[in-house]
Write a sequence for this structure.
């Protein structure tokens, strides 16, 4: 290759090859023509997956990254192609997911002149990326691609966009294919150099605790600190609750696990947060859906906050000890300075709450989403990769599909993006072909990205698409019932298509579940079917509500474990 | 230009809810779009930029940026961290007045009756300012120093008919050996 003359696009694809990129998800178009051509002319190991929409391409790259910890690339054209990626990029940014997005662009001399399919995607995406580039020199393409990969995958990961004008990609490349990075303002290595005093102070506070809780976040997964977390928890005899994105960093079947906390977390996790005397937060950003009311959160507790991002310190909660740096490095250091705590009576108290407020559901009176998820969990022995959309089904999946390992739970947390689950499952299945991948989706979100049925079918991916269908935007309807006198507005999805017939139109196998008694056998059939994707449409009762629930902006002690008997005041928090 | 539009400095007092007077200095990559990234950090959190001064650094790969800002002081720590997080920002510091030198320069155009000229020139001289343009009916004064001094001079001159005020905004430099 080195003796052949390259154009910019070929130099770009060659660089991605050398970076070890395995998948590019994308959608072609005029301004990206040279780059698409380079996919054909440059030899290497990159596989290209043609999606049916650019948003789907982003979510697939996102699912790939969340299932492996490695980034994938999104390649789209300019203007509308680039514009369609915004939701996908924002979803990755909010959840610290590495991703590289390459957008075609009009030729440089037309920029700013409203040329055909010109959009200022560099400007538009600035608030939703970790960083972005508008390439102005062909010879800088390999350096920028390397910088983008480096920025996306180090420190707190995130999406990085590269906007490539067509004249830049199709001009002759005469530069260095292995240039040095030029990022004087970016020093992720400093995350491994942790202030030893902060560790000692944390260890001292820990040694005085009688009722500690570890709050385990996504940062543990990103830094691959699961073993260090296990050592911390088991050495201290300390219960562990995880965030939505942290599901799996500590096995939820472990006796020290309290499951997920927060707005729809377990009652025992939330009670533990209220009654504890110490919160050890590792790799969580104290999201508003966890802390409820910031002034009351952890009021009676000391707080230790471990985060790689200094800007997360004091953002929502003022910790007693800040440990700024990589979670694995921090926990290794901390584990050397701790000794077992006497927590037997604290654990007994929490066991009491586990017995008093278990996650439960009724099997009478129609099919409930909880039952479908519970049986899915049993049949897959908790080993499937589960992706979700956003809403009631997501919260029930988080509650009932216990996750025992990192990278097995893929859910849009920060952005709360409907339409995420199914394309993310495609990316996850490509990344891990031997695993069972189940996309747990609602009938609302599924319809936002179901055009990717074609992508799943063509690639013969055995993704199981479990549509928990209540013909409603259920979570919004729940809020309207609880806080708006049950006035339904904009939530009724009557007129949904027949999802099984729709699947069949794509040549995809479809199953219906209509009765509680059928759940197990239909799910088993679907799990046994591996000739391609399949859709399981579960017709669920329409007006079930998710509990426990902490109304947005309320304190954790104001958690509802059952439907309220009285009319509720409108929540002070947003969502 | 229509005289009805108030392009001169307003005599309105600043809102008491907003605490101004914070000065940030940044050392940043000298590339298109860097200022936009920084401005987004402030705009999203409802901070107003009172002044922005950007100039190329000694090494032209970098730029110097001095920002005068108003907004909720409780959020300032966050803002500085968010700025430091930007890939294009090498560093961002807040500078305490006592540990730094700040200066700004103002050009003030005053329409005068010939009888007032002597008094205007006296004020200009008192502040160590300079007359940089002198016409039959107008004067442009160049005032420089710290912002309080510039404010005071403009205030004294405002009994005359100031038609335009253009200020550079503050530039800051840390005292002693500390980095700006």
């Amino acid at each position: 290759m080195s003796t052949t003359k390259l154009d910019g696009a070929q130099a770009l694809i060659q660089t991605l090859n050398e970076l070890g990129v395995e998948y590019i998800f994308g959608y072609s178009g005029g301004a990206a023509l040279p780059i698409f051509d380079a996919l054909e002319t440059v030899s290497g190991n990159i596989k290209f997956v043609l999606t049916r929409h650019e948003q789907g391409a982003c979510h697939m790259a996102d699912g790939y990254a969340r299932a492996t910890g490695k980034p994938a690339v999104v390649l789209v054209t300019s203007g509308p192609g680039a514009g369609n990626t915004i939701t996908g990029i924002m979803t990755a940014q909010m959840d610290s997911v590495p991703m590289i997005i390459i957008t075609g662009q009009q030729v440089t001399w037309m920029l700013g002149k409203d040329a055909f399919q010109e959009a200022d995607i560099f400007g538009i995406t600035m608030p939703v990326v970790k960083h972005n580039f508008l390439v102005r020199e062909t010879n800088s393409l390999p350096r920028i691609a390397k910088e983008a990969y480096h920025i996306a995958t180090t420190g707190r990961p995130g999406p990085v966009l590269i906007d490539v004008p067509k004249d830049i990609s199709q001009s002759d490349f005469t530069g260095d294919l292995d240039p040095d990075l030029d990022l004087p303002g970016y020093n992720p290595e400093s995350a491994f150099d942790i202030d030893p005093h902060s560790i000692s102070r944390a260890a001292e506070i820990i040694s005085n605790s009688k009722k500690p809780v570890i709050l385990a976040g996504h940062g543990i997964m990103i830094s691959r600190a699961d073993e260090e977390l296990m050592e911390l928890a088991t050495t201290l005899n300390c219960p562990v609750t995880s965030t939505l994105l942290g599901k799996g960093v500590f096995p939820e079947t472990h006796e020290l696990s309290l499951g997920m906390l927060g707005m729809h977390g377990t009652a025992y996790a939330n009670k533990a947060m209220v009654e504890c005397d110490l919160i050890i937060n590792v790799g969580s950003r104290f999201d508003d859906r966890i802390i409820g009311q910031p002034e009351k959160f952890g009021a009676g507790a000391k707080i230790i906050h471990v985060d790689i991002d200094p800007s997360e310190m004091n953002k929502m909660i003022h910790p007693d000890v800040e440990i700024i740096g990589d979670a694995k490095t921090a926990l290794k250091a901390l584990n050397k300075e701790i000794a077992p705590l006497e927590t037997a009576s604290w654990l007994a108290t929490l066991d009491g709450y586990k017995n008093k407020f278990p996650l439960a559901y009724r099997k009478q009176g129609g099919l409930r989403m909880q039952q479908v998820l519970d049986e899915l969990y049993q049949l897959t022995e908790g080993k499937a990769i589960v992706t979700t959309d956003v809403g009631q089904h997501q919260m029930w999946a988080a509650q009932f599909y216990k996750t025992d390992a990192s990278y097995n739970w893929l859910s849009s947390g920060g952005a709360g993006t409907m339409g995420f689950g199914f394309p993310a499952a495609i990316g996850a299945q490509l990344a891990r072909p031997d695993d069972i991948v189940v996309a747990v989706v609602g009938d609302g979100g599924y319809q936002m990205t179901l055009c990717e049925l074609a992508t799943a079918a063509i690639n013969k991916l055995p993704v199981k698409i479990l549509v928990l269908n209540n013909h409603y935007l259920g979570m919004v309807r729940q809020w309207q019932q609880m806080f708006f006198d049950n006035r339904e507005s904009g939530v009724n999805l009557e007129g949904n298509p027949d999802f099984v017939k729709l699947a069949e139109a794509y040549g995809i196998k479809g199953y219906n579940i209509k009765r509680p008694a059928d759940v197990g056998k239909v799910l088993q059939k679907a799990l046994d079917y591996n000739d391609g994707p399949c859709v399981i449409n579960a017709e669920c009762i329409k007006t079930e509500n998710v509990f426990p629930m902490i109304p947005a902006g309320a304190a954790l002690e104001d958690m509802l474990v059952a439907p309220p008997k009285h009319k509720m005041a409108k929540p002070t928090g947003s969502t | 230009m229509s005289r009805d539009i108030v392009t001169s400095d307003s005599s309105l007092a600043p809102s008491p809810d907003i605490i101004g007077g914070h000065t940030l200095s940044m050392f940043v990559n000298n590339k298109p779009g860097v200022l936009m990234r920084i401005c987004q950090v402030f705009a999203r959190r409802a901070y107003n930029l009172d002044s922005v001064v950007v100039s190329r650094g000694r090494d032209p790969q970098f730029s110097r940026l001095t920002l005068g800002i108003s907004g909720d002081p409780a959020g300032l720590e966050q803002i500085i961290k968010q700025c430091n997080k930007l890939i294009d920002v090498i560093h961002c510091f807040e500078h305490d007045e006592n540990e730094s030198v700040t200066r700004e320069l103002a050009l003030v155009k005053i329409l005068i009756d010939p009888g007032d000229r002597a008094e205007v020139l006296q004020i200009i001289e008192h502040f160590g300012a300079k007359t940089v343009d002198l016409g039959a009916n107008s004067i442009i004064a160049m005032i420089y120093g710290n912002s309080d001094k510039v404010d005071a001079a403009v205030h004294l001159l405002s009994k005359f008919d100031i038609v335009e005020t253009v200020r550079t905004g503050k530039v800051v430099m840390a005292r002693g050996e500390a980095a700006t």
Summary: The first helix of chain B runs from residue 34 to 44. The two ends of chain B are 39 Å apart (CA to CA). Chain B has a mean pLDDT of 89.
